[in-house]
Design brief:
The protein is mostly helical and 664 residues long. It contains 28 helices and two strands.
């Protein structure tokens, strides 16, 4: 037992030794050249090296330590209180809410930022957490409901931030770099402002150690005199405060809140009092290592990379390594509840959805804005002149919605997990990375080149996921693999974009999900692929139903399970690649559409797949029309509008429905 108890401290000490060695390598020459006095006392203005060390590099080192500590501690509190190893400031939408509040304050309440930027970010963070709680309360804080709501809330806030940036780029241009997590410092004022806040929150967390330890007993803790609701509220208040203070100071560095507690648990820190110390120290050590490496990289190449984006490049491999070697230490938290009531007349419901899709399509074709911005209906020659602009993008958006919805349904049925989707599992990020690789390999890539690159990227991510799934001991670990891979690829794309390479910059507009550049030939190709993909998926209904009953049952009914898995993986990868090329990787239609169909009562086999496809088509058709007309004469990206449109609908159906369940 003593050996097991010493393991987390040995691992934490080793990590800090590595951090100290890298920091000494980076800062050692400056300290030796300027003298140790530059570390402890303000240097003269004429000594530029000493000024750089004292007012920039040393505050940056301390800031990385403080921020890493804060995010590691907040992650521990979130995961322990919610009893969910996937809980973190990023998966619960807290960071995205803080970023949205800061953007709103920059546009409409700039005086608030001059008075207290922490107030703005705290308001956004607590508001996002309140939304998650409002929905999760309905499901008695089932872990799957908490994370599902948190992901949608975070995506919704991020979509609003992106739209605000597109519409007000002259005001919010700096928000992109800040959102990547910048630790650059010009003096000690930011450190002096953040440090006492983190110390105060840490003291509050330590005062709750005993109550948090008893919290694992659940409702039985009330018999010991513990006020469960008060303890949970206090711990979550501290966690949100830690996150918002950090976001206010340096921007979004969200991966540490997920990685540090998972690494601490994996190296043996199983008791809450141990994790409350080990995880923050691990988070601080990781952020120091990443930031020092980024400084060395910038000095050698002259290219600046935001530390928050680069954190995932180093943190994800570390997290995956310890998960694969200590996978059993993560608790299974994904549970299912009762099933939504199945519709007694699924065909009528499907017909109603199809009619609604057709009605939205007719509105999108015949209605729009005039030159003066007024609403007009187009007919005759006017309509003929507008059809080449309206029809291709509508067909492409609708087809992309169908394909993303079907890909999400396939992945949810294959994994038996209601949170699986191309976006959550990193498949969309893999498509984006594959496309980025094509842009660097092929001088003038065609649509065929882009499709091949996207398919290879999506297929590679799915292959890696299911290779890792053999080592997973729970559905939560499989999801964490996907979230981690998605974070890694997204961070890698951000690093390439930050380099300023013109080939990478051409990817920015596509990632927003715009459809206004779709040609007639491309829309016909996409629609044909969507039809073929839909027919192929419908043919898999019977083996999918047998597969859901378990491997033994599937084998007894003549289903080749391994072959079926390969077919589903390939189909989901191809559908995701084609759809992502049209609407970008940000829409989350693959997550929302299957759930929307299920909540409407389409829960079984073929009706669910058809309902999912129609919900995806409806979301994207509506989003394309709104994106074309809402901010006329400028265009809003369809992928982002789909997120803004589907988020409230998804939340409403989630609140009014029964607990989440597996698909049948």
């Amino acid at each position: 037992m003593k050996h097991i108890g010493a393991r987390p401290w040995f691992a934490t000490g080793l990590l800090w030794c590595i951090a100290a060695a890298i920091a000494a390598f980076n800062l050692g020459p400056l300290v030796g050249g300027t003298g140790v006095h530059a570390v402890f006392s303000p240097p003269s203005a004429g000594d530029s090296q000493a000024v750089l060390l004292h007012y920039s590099l040393l505050p940056r080192l301390v800031m990385s330590c403080v921020c890493g500590f804060a995010l590691g501690l907040s992650g521990v509190l979130f995961q322990h209180v919610l009893r969910n190893p996937l809980a973190s400031p990023s998966t619960l939408g807290v960071e995205a809410g803080a970023q949205l509040a800061l953007g709103v304050a920059m546009l409409w309440f700039p005086a608030l930022l001059g008075w207290s930027r922490d107030t703005a970010t705290a308001f956004g963070g607590f508001a996002a957490m309140a939304v998650v709680f409002a929905v999760a309360w309905r499901f008695k804080f089932q872990p799957i409901a908490v994370i599902l709501t948190g992901l949608v809330t975070g995506l919704y806030c991020a979509a609003i931030v992106t739209l605000l940036t597109l519409m007000n780029d002259h005001y919010l241009s700096g928000l992109f770099i800040w959102g990547g997590g910048s630790l650059n410092q010009n003096d000690w004022r930011s450190v002096a402002g953040l440090f006492p806040k983190i110390v105060g929150c840490t003291m509050l967390a330590l005062l709750l150690v005993r109550q948090l330890g008893v919290l694992t007993l659940g409702e039985a803790a009330q018999g010991l005199g513990v006020k469960l609701q008060f303890v949970r509220a206090a711990a979550l208040f501290v966690a949100v405060a830690l996150t918002t203070f950090t976001v206010s100071a340096v921007g979004v560095i969200g991966f540490l809140g997920l990685a540090a507690p998972a690494i601490a648990r994996a190296v043996g820190a199983r008791r809450i009092n141990t994790r409350l110390i080990a995880a923050p120290l691990i988070g601080a050590g990781l952020l120091i290592i990443v930031d020092q490496i980024m400084q060395i990289y910038a000095e050698k190449t002259g290219s600046y990379v935001p530390t928050g984006a680069a954190t995932a490049l180093i943190g994800v491999p570390v997290l995956l390594f310890v998960m694969l070697n200590r996978g059993g230490s993560l608790q299974t938290a994904v549970r299912t509840g009762g099933s939504p009531a199945a519709s007694s007349r699924p065909l009528i419901l499907i017909a109603a959805l199809a009619a609604l899709v057709l009605a939205v399509a007719m509105v999108a074709i015949f209605f729009g804005r005039g030159i003066d911005g007024s609403w007009i209906s187009s007919t005759g020659a006017t309509l003929q002149s507008l059809l080449p602009w309206r029809l291709p993008r509508l067909v492409a958006a609708t087809s992309a919605g169908i394909m993303l919805a079907l890909a999400g349904s396939l992945l949810q049925r294959l994994t038996g997990n209601a949170m699986a989707s191309p976006e959550v599992l990193g498949v969309s990020a893999g498509t984006a990375f594959g496309l980025l690789c094509i842009l660097f390999v092929v001088p003038e890539p065609t649509i065929g080149h882009r499709l091949i690159g996207g398919f290879l990227g999506a297929g590679t991510v799915l292959a890696i996921l299911f290779a890792m799934s053999r080592a997973a001991h729970s559905g939560n670990q499989f999801l964490m693999f996907g979230v981690s891979l998605g974070a890694f690829l997204t961070a890698l794309i951000s690093v390439v974009l930050a380099s300023g390479d013109p080939r990478a910059l051409s990817l920015i507009s596509w990632m927003a999900g715009s459809t206004y550049g779709v040609s007639s030939a491309m829309s016909l190709t996409i629609s044909a692929l969507a039809i073929v993909g839909a027919i192929a998926v419908m043919l898999l209904v019977r083996p999918l139903q047998q597969f859901a009953l378990g491997d033994l049952s599937a084998h007894s009914h003549g289903v080749d399970v391994k072959k079926l898995q390969v077919v589903i993986l390939a189909g989901a990868a191809l559908l995701t690649a084609v759809a992502t090329l049209i609407v970008g990787p940000l829409s989350f239609v693959g997550l929302m559409a299957p759930h929307l169909a299920q909540r409407l009562g389409l829960t079984r086999g073929l009706p669910h797949l058809m309902g999912s496809a129609l919900c995806g088509a409806l979301l994207m058709a509506t989003a394309d029309f709104i994106g074309r007309t809402a901010y006329f004469p400028w265009q809003l990206p369809t992928g982002l509008v789909a997120t803004l449109l589907g988020g409230p609908v998804f939340a409403l159906l989630l609140v009014r429905s029964r607990p989440l369940s597996k698909l049948r």
